[in-house]
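Now for one specimen:
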Amino acid sequence: MLVLKAVLDALRIKHKSGVSVSTFEDVLEYGKTLLFTSLGDDVDRDILTTLWPKSWNDVQLLLKEEGYEDARQFFVCFCREEKEVTRDGKTTKKFVYNGKYSVMENKDDRCPHCGNKGYIKYMYLGLENKLKNWFRNRSMCTNMLEHWLEKEHWLGNVESWHLKKEIWDGNRWSELQWFWNPESVWALPTRCVHCNIPISADHLINSPDCDRQGAFKSVECPVCFENFEHCIKMAKGSPLNLALIGHFDGWQPFGTSFRGSGSFEVTVANMRKTQRNHVDEVYVVGFVPCFEVPNLPESLDPFLEPLMSDLCNGFIEGFHVNYPKGISISGYEPSREETVRVLLLCWTADHPGQCETGKFLNQGKCACRRCKLVGQHLENSSNTHYYYGQNRFHYRHPWEKRTIESELRNIFDIEHETRPSVRKKMSSEEGFTGLSIFHKYLYPLYGFDILNHLVYDVYHTVPLNVVKNQIVRALDLEMLDKAKLDKQIENFPWTGEFKDGRLPRQLGKDSKGIGYWKAESFQKYSFPMAECIMESQITNQRECEIVSLVSRLTELHFHVGRNGWTQDMIKLHQNLVWRLNILVEEEQGLAMCTISMHNLLHIHEDILNFSAPDNTWCAVFERAVKEYVKKSHNGKGIETTFAHVEAVREYLKSVEMEKETSPGRHDVSLVSSMKTENIKY
């Protein structure tokens, strides 16, 4: 235990300081020197010298016996062919991609499609080890049972809870209540033995029986159309089962677009939002080297594939964990060894991130994934962007709703179209760029709907889009005087509550303009500041009403709604955003009717499905990204560095939590009284 404790102390130094692996090895060597000078004569130094780790690899081998698992490295190949292109008399080489890819576990493995090695490294931190770490601690286990403490909000209810505060107060949790109900039994889906794609339980049940005895079915895979025999297995619900909220974001570790990265993260939805919305509860799944990834519809699929595989295994087979003793669960008695199942409840990101993962058009003619609105160009303008109007008409005659069942044929046609120009035209007409990997893997398991379960992020939509666009317009049209605004910002009587965080910055020379405002700055400008300072400067009453509408939306989402949404508040929100869309179009013009403005019309649907928006918005994930950037040292293999740092963070957290419940596990008493035969490492 002496060596283990010393290594853990060194790891804590590494994590807190953010030093590189090379520096960490220097710390190890220095720590060994300090330790040896403090040892008594009764300790065998030769044994300690042999057992002391000399490198990062030695440390990993030592800690694996204590539950540590480092990130796994995959190798991704996007199948491509190099061609010469002649333009204006100049010949250049470029890569032409055919849409196929493969994910390999070893660097010497060959792609089954093109025969090449994987040339993009991907660092992936799996779900199974995360679950084992989470269940090592009693306090974490208690936090993950918060949904069960409020089971009267969803268990046995046909309709969702009247006050939408925690995520289990929404419709989606009630729909999936069989997943947690210990009295529910359901048929498990399976994965095709040929293509490994999940097959739904309904498809298995409706398959014909085999000739031989037993509950075997003759199953035809709906994806590859191969046949195999399968015996249907059953599962029971459990309060220990976990729902996850997923997230993707791209970011710049060095503040420039030259070296972009991205990350997939998850949080545990079973916890209360006050516990979950903290950077310590954001767990990274994988780091994507975005600068190496080609700009293709399937660019994120190979990086999501290991996560989809883990989610399938976690739902069908479950993960085996050791459950702490003595935690009482009303109506359910857990055993020492439990099988915990996992599902992805929803996925959040900003609008471009959702379009990348869900394979929707970011902008364009059919940019909405919930309804069949049609965009239009500005008249007499060279601007080729689409904008989304006719709101007054569509308030009375709503756009037709999209459903995944009605859209599948179009999605499959786009996915299997091999002619690039035809596929691009089809995408423009239908609003999809292909078949999302979420639908391929998760829809057969429990009906994960890419149209409704990829939520709209209020954190980006309201402050960083709607509020920002209104401020920029007011400044451009000189409705606001910059010098006067700076003085008002300086003298505004902020309360202590608002001072706790980022305030709007002055726009003057030193503060460098509106581009340096953050989401929280726009939020606080919109409420409570905007109405107070603009009422005396704007004479147009309809413009004043637009300012007031945006302020009310900000107040609802970032203040009143944090304590829960009633049905009246949801209806009020729906009326406010319709009025805002109509007024903006008629008073400010079609150029202000962006897709973000339209997306406001669908946020009430997410509130009904997943409760208050602060359960799923990206604020906590954005703060976690800042922690990754702090660990940046150079541009060489930073995804690998980030992955090691995150693996160490999660392990140290589980060790600290386990130490709270099992004092002395990683502690050492008097070193001088320690006998050499007790040294295990």
